[in-house]
Amino acid sequence: MSTPPPTGPLVTRDTLAEQLRELGVQTGETLLVHSSLSALGWVCGGALAVVQGLLDALGPDGTLVVPTQTGDLSDPAVWSNPPVPEAWWDTIRATMPAYDPLVTPALGVGVIPETVRTWPGALRSAHPQTSFAAVGPRAAQITEGHALDCRLGERSPLARLEALHARVLLLGAGYATCTSFHLAEYRIPSPLVKVGRPGPAGWEVVTEVSITSDRFDELGRDFDRDRPVVRGKVGAAEARLFPVPDAVAYAGRWLEIHRPRAEEM
Predict the structure, then answer these.
(1) Exposure pattern of 66-78 as b/e (b: 16+ CB <10 Å)?
(2) Which of 143, 146, 94 is closest to 123 using CA atoms?
(3) Residue 16 in contact with residue 50, Cβ under 8 Å?
(4) Are the C-beta atoms of residues 137 and 63 closer than 8 Å to each other?
(5) Which of 100, 110, 150, 252 is most buried (most C-beta within 10 Å)?
(6) 39's torsion region: left (phi>0), alpha (psi -120 to 50) or beta?
(7) Using an 8 Å Cβ cutoff, are 216 and 10 in contact?
(8) Mean pLDDT across 110-135
(9) Is 93 exposed, middle or buried (0-12, 13-18, 19+ CB in 10 A)?
(10) How many Å from the N-terminal Cα to the C-terminal Cα in the chain?
């Protein structure tokens, strides 16, 4: 049986750049992108063309930022998708390679962030589980100083993006992926948790703020209703564009009311 032809739309580097500008992406701005390649349609050139289109829309003075998370660098005792036998845990902890920002691949955030991570001149932050990569003149300012015990809080690139009045672009991705909401979790009462991971000197455990994207889809629905979010289409993908500070401020109020977690502490 022959494979049916793609249904499209046909998306190119140039059409992406044009539609991003029509959506409101501005030359010279700083843009945090959460993305889904498959949502865009049939992209000629795949993730490479998407990154080129994003950089074209931002221009040489703009900075592109993406999450390059590595959730697999974690304690096998908490793995569930899939779990591994308990008899393996000690060996995994003893042999798991430590995070290296130059070579450790991103996991679970899609192929577009992985393409940005390996882009010429890209810089990547130091946190071994929740790093960000950036390309552009503000890349160093955003990625430097990511504290090893602060996944997505005040000493992470998210706080730098907020201070820079960067904007978020959800490109075929839903609000459940919106990392800016996590910054709000650091500013309201939240439980602490022990986090295990491989380190340069072997297995290590740090105390961190507990973060979860539980109910972020609901939070995003209300944010989308209440705040001036720019909505449109890029290729076949639904796109959303909004300021990081707006998302953080709204999430802080919403989470305290709708998802209080202080009692877990």
Answers:
(1) bbbbbeebbbbee
(2) 143
(3) yes
(4) yes
(5) 110
(6) alpha
(7) no
(8) 98
(9) middle
(10) 57
What is the SS3 assignment for 235?
coil
Q: Is 28 left (phi over 0), alpha (psi -120 to 50) or beta?
A: left
- Cα separation, 100 vs 128, in Å, equals 8
CB 195 within 8 A of CB 150: no
Banded model confidence at residue 262, pLDDT cuts 50, 70, 90: low
Which DSSP helix (H) or strand (E) runs through 46?
A: helix 46-58
Residue 264 pLDDT grade (very low, low, confident, very high; cuts 50, 70, 90): low
Q: What share of the chain is helix, strand, coil (3-state, %, to 5)?
A: 35, 20, 45
Task: Give the residue among 25, 14, 24, 64 at the shortest CA–CA distance from 235.
Answer: 14
| DSSP H helical ranges for 153-235 | 157-163, 180-185, 216-226
Give the pair of three-digit tokens for residue 226: 């209440």
Write down how long the chain is. 265
To which residue do tokens 């998306």 refer? 11
What mean pLDDT is predicted for residues 220-231?
A: 97
Q: CA-CA distance, 39 to 21, in Å (whole number)?
A: 19
Average pLDDT over residues 184-205: 95
DSSP 171-183: ES--GGG-THHHH
Q: What's the pLDDT score for residue 261?
A: 83
Token pair, residue 217, equals 């889809």
Q: Give the CA angle between residues 246, 250, 256 to the nearest 5°.
A: 155
* pLDDT value of position 265: 44
pLDDT in tens, 153-172: 999 999 999 999 999 999 99
